[in-house]
């Protein structure tokens, strides 16, 4: 029986009911809260394994909750999945930049929700990606120590920036990254570069990955993720 504790902060009763029912059916221990300020108190008191967070909430909005969580050393490593209306894309981007791990656009299917929850819980809290030197996805091998990418034993000629982008995505499969996050992580904060168009680099990486290009998924209006397989 899965006893992972999940706090769901959502003020729409119908959505709360659907989310809670499907999570409980999978064996999760679910705590539902319909106010943002109360939800933050529950998170701090119970330290759950995961938070599912709506953005538009009474008492305190979801972005403020996420920001306060990530600035609190006690709860900052708890993963967060944002659930949001499609019209709130700019807020989703801000949420990811504040440290949320993924998002679901309303309306969503229970099957997709459970898949995202399981993917985030498998990853666990965010870790230092530099500690993982070799990532293997079927016949695709990403070797950080050699700064090398191979597919079926054949070395692919990626630039330094392309390698960093692929490695960043592959380090946390299933996690959504904004374009700004990827740029900051591959070139560093405050570093001036001539080409700041992350999409150009992504297209180049996909082309070089060939049959594996589909692993890199575009999240419209937000950024990219590597498929969690």
Give the helices and strands, then pairings:
Elements: E1 5-9, H1 13-25, E2 29-33, H2 36-46, E3 50-54, H3 62-70, E4 80-85, H4 89-98, E5 102-106, H5 110-123, E6 134-137, E7 140-143, E8 148-151, E9 154-156, H6 160-171, E10 177-178, H7 179-187, H8 198-209, E11 216-219, E12 223-226
Parallel strand pairs: 1-2, 1-3, 3-4, 4-5
Antiparallel strand pairs: 6-7, 7-8, 8-9, 10-12, 11-12
Helix pairs in contact: 2-3, 3-4, 6-7, 6-8
Overall description:
The protein is an alpha/beta fold and 229 residues long. The chain has 2 domains: 5-123, Response regulator (Rossmann fold, 3-Layer(aba) Sandwich); 129-226, Orthogonal Bundle (Arc Repressor Mutant, subunit A), CATH 1.10.10. It is 39% helix and 22% strand. It contains 8 helices and 12 strands. It has a 5-stranded parallel sheet with strand order 2-1-3-4-5, with helices on both faces. Strands 6-7-8-9 form a 4-stranded antiparallel sheet, with helices on one face. Helix 1 (13-25) links the parallel strand 1 and strand 2.
Brief descriptors of the model:
alpha/beta; 39% helix; 229 residues; Rossmann fold; 5-stranded parallel beta sheet; Arc Repressor Mutant, subunit A; 12 strands; 8 helices; 4-stranded antiparallel beta sheet
């Amino acid at each position: 029986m899965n006893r992972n504790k999940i706090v769901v902060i959502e003020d729409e009763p119908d959505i709360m009911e659907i989310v809670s029912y499907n999570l409980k059916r999978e064996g999760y221990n679910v705590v539902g809260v319909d106010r943002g300020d109360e939800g933050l108190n529950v998170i701090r008191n119970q330290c759950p394994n995961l938070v599912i967070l709506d953005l538009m909430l009474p008492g305190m909005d979801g972005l403020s909750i996420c920001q306060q969580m990530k600035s609190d050393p006690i709860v900052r490593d708890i993963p967060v999945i944002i659930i949001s209306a499609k019209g709130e894309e700019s807020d989703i981007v801000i949420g990811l930049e504040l440290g949320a791990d993924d998002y679901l656009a309303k309306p969503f299917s229970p099957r997709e929700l459970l898949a995202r929850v399981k993917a985030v819980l498998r990853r666990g809290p965010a870790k230092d990606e530099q500690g993982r030197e070799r990532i293997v996805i079927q016949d695709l091998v990403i070797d950080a120590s050699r700064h090398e990418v191979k597919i079926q034993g054949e070395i692919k000629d990626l630039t330094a920036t392309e390698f960093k982008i692929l490695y960043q995505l592959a380090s946390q499969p299933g996690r959504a990254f904004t374009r700004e996050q990827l740029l900051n992580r591959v070139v560093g904060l405050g570093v001036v570069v001539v080409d700041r168009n992350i999409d150009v680099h992504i297209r180049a990486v996909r082309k070089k990955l060939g049959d594996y290009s589909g692993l890199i998924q575009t999240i419209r209006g937000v950024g990219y993720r590597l498929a969690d397989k």
